Amino acid sequence: MKHQSLKPTLLVALVVLLGAPVVQATPYATAVTNTGSSVSFRLNEAADSVKIISAGGAVTNDLGALPAGLNTVSLAVTGPFQIEVNKGPTFGYLQGVANQISSDANRLVRFNAPRGVAVNRNPASAYFGRIYISNADTGSVAAVTRNLLNGDGIFMLNADFTDAVGQGDTARTAGLNWRNPPVTDHANKPFRIEVGEDSNLYISDYTSFTNATPTGNLYVADPDVADTSGTNVFVLDPANAGRIPSSAVVKGSLGAGNLTVYAIYPDKLYNYDFLGFPASSYSVMQRWDVGSGPLPSGAVPVRVTDLPILVSDVPSVLSDIEVAPDGKYFITQNRSAGFEGGLFVVDPAKDTDASGYPDIVFDSLAYSVAYFGMTNDLLLQTRGVKVAPDGSVVALVRDDNRVWIIPLTNGIPDLSRRLLMDSGVLTTLGRDITFDAAGNLYTASSGQAAIKAFSPGFASRAVTGSDGTFSVTRLTNSPPLVYVTASDTNIYEATAGDTGIFTVFRLGDTAAPLDVDLSLGGTALNGGDYQLLSTLVTIPTGQIRVTNVVYPINNPLLDGNRTLVVSVLPGPNYEVNPTNNSATIQIRDDDQPPGPVLFSDDFDTDTSANYAVVFGAENGVDDKTVLFSYDYSADNIPSAPHSVDGTNRGLKLTVNKNNTVASAAGVNIYPLGLSLSNEFALRFDMYERFSSAAAGTTEHSIFGLNHSGSRTNRALTGGGLVGGDGLWFAVESDGSASSSARSYALFASTNPAVAPPFSAVSARTMDPFFTAPPFLANGAPSGQWVDVEVTQTNLSGNLIITWKINAVVILVRTNTTPYTSGTIMLGHMDSFNSIGSTSNYTIFDNVRVINLTTTRPNITSIRRADANVEIDFTAGADDAADAFTLESSTGLPDGFDPDAGASITALGGGQFRAVSPNSAGPQRFFRIKR
Questions:
Q1: CA distance 721 to 741
Q2: Could you say which of 591, 714, 743, 782 has the lowest number of CB atoms within 10 Å?
Q3: What integer pLDDT is reported at residue 880 of this predicted model?
Q4: Do the beta carbons of residue 24 and residue 35 sit within 8 Å?
């Protein structure tokens, strides 16, 4: 087995939004029958025209437009015939539009616990077009008042989403036990499903082992899932088969004597040196040559690929497989942080190193790192995989129900042309994905409590033959369809390398260059807030896209957050996509108004004597690194944003790196003699770093306020009695969303004797704001300096805590704890009993506390002084002069603007003087603005 590489051309992601429901699928005919005097067939969707073609093409009966559902035509036809179904141009997932063709209001597509979806794609089968859904629990769907009190099992729908067998809300079980004792772990039973080439339904069972005995299996049922038809495919034996997390790809049939099953076995092979695998191996792709049976089969499985492909040292990794039309194996695994590959493609026709195992011709993690500059996999959190029947695209469903649509070139994914489709509400969990014979796409989601279907788009012609043949043609000769998407929608103007990206696409003819007119609107100024962009872009000959990078201009102005709205304007040589005709990019301001400084430390000198250092660990071993005035240029880290004159010294913290005993630990640093209350802001520069070269990447930078300064604040994975006090915050460094998605957590202690409750935000929520590159991992603010701010403000007598990173609001909560005053804390923790890399650490720099309790400026006098106007006013004794601006107006209805050339000086004791050089001319009004 050998890894091969195919270089993609460009890192661009198209985010497809769910547009207005045009409700146009690729319609095709199923359930075709001929009585001699009439022909009947079922359309999955309304068609613009339907024709019955017979007598070898000599006779055509044009039926015109027909609705979805069962259609019967009085027509005498002898011999083979074809039903040609035509649809005019429409939008779909191949064009950048998520055009849902199923209706969420149809109660028959709503399920409380869907786990799998499959469609019969065999035109020679009487069940061609039938949709199967596996549901793993009883329950209800309130939105459509559907009560699935007997919901464990299989449901069947016709191609038009009507009830195929009259089962209503009662699942069919094929006579198999999906729920009742001794079954206790039924949440994944039944699991994924697949229609075999023999038209039987193959049902995966992902239930747990019990005392090293497999309780799961692969089952088969007839196409109607009749009560007496269900049986185990395999003998229950841990050396043969147990629970199956993947779809089971089934080729051949028992009758033909060539039944072959492909699936993944996810569990440790208990005490078996199985076909050369070590006893600790997990997630093995296997092939069972069942032949003519009988069932249950004792066929010895054969490993399909060499190790390592999937994670081999972690149990119960959710995985899936697909065998593409060209024979390639597509293998996926679900990894939350993406530090292992999410998609592999194996070509059984290639064995370039003569190892006896086929080559891996695509590895999504290797490609993401080598060609996109990422540290983790673009295709993380993949749950299911299917290749379109024509082999044109591969579809991957994610945890959050988004769907990757990736074109295939010679059977290899072309990530540079990928699309990311929102299938509706973004929630967990996406469960399964499949295609029908016409290329319509189906998803199953427990979070959405539904199966959904989406059109591929374009004009289409689908032909179903009475002789068991089928073909579909997509017609793409219409004018190019142009649209724009933003793949990186958030910029922080102070972060080096943090840019926005928008891409203009065309779908259709690429034989000539195409000029596209754009408008650049929004509140951001072209050439002022971002580097100058042209409003005319040209898509080159042979290309489908042109990408523009938005580079922010970091100015010192307090101009707030601004937006760039890129819109496609009409043009003579293209059509504009009606739903993806604009894209918005936000530029976040890094500037803040000055205020009285209550505390500051730039760590340019060793100030360790001014701090208390408190440490705690599960094993009681003092294993911490605390380096004051650390020269972080030694780590190739640039000067922090708020450092003066480019200095590069800060506070470096880490834990659990100096001995070989794995233990969760945390260190807290407290300024001595500092007590804060009322309204204030804690601000600092923070740099997180981690290394993916070693296990144990998940650690947290921590900081807080209102502490006593004597306790260790830290957390344990899964809870634990780690006490503390105050309110403190934890930032995950690797974006893995591990430990109950505590990527960003606010811990609010109420009792130092117990573990503090917390509010959490997953790294996936922060993916749009912290993208890799320039950050080390999506959703994590690591590998770059970031601005952190925590404020405590008083709103109507309630203390409000607001936490921001790079001006992104992470969490807001009311402080209901007894901790309303105290000192601040900086720290670092490892909440796992593991030892991470020495490259996992936090650096803090330029820590300051700003007084937010302000005194309103009060003008005490105004007078002419030669050619100037002098305005005296009072404010807070701790206020700085640059906290104020003199504004003027020639007329109150005209509004105020900063007074040109004005200056403000502090006279001491809260006394200030503003001087305007504009005493001449018409009457002017003045005001002092904080």
A1: 20
A2: 591
A3: 85
A4: no
**Beta-carbon count within 10 A of 273 CB:** 10
Residue closest to 261 by CA, chosen among 277, 244, 275: 244
Using one digit for the tens of pLDDT, what is the confidence trace for 336-350?
A: 888 888 999 999 999
With a CB cutoff of 8 Å and minimum separation 6, the contacts of 405 are: 16, 93, 94, 393, 395, 418, 419, 420, 421
Task: Give yes or no for a contact between 781 and 687, defined as CB atoms under 8 angstroms apart.
Answer: no
User: Which residue is it, tokens 């591990």?
Assistant: 738
Contacts of 422 (CB under 8 A, 6+ apart): 15, 16, 17, 18, 98, 401, 402
DSSP string, 181-215: TT----TTSS--EEE-TTS-EEEE--PPPBTTB--
CA distance 341 to 385: 14
**How do residues 218-272 score in pLDDT, each as one tens digit?**
999 999 999 999 999 988 654 444 578 889 999 999 999 999 999 887 554 433 3
Lay out the sheet containing 903-908: strands in order across.
858-865, 868-874, 911-916, 903-908
Alpha carbon distance 693, 710 (integer Å):
36
If pLDDT is split at 50, 70 and 90, which confidence band does 275 have?
very low
| Spatial separation of the C-alpha atoms in residues 100 and 45, rounded to whole Å | 12
User: What distance lies between CA 198 and its chain's CA centroid?
Assistant: 37
Q: What is the mean pLDDT of the chain?
A: 87
Instruction: Spell out the alpha helix ranges (H) of 640-686.
Output: none
Could you tell me how far CA 903 lies from the centroid of its own chain? Answer: 50
CA-to-CA separations, 653 to 508, 623, 630, 699, 829, in angstroms, rounded: 55, 11, 10, 12, 9
Half-sphere exposure of 879 (CA within 13 A, CB side): 28
The whole-angstrom separation of Cα 795 and Cα 439 is 56
Strands 785-795 and 680-689, bridge-based pairing: antiparallel
* Sequence-ordered list of residues with C-beta below 8 angstroms from that of 354, at least 6 positions apart, any chain: none
Q: Six-digit token pair at 654?
A: 């880490």
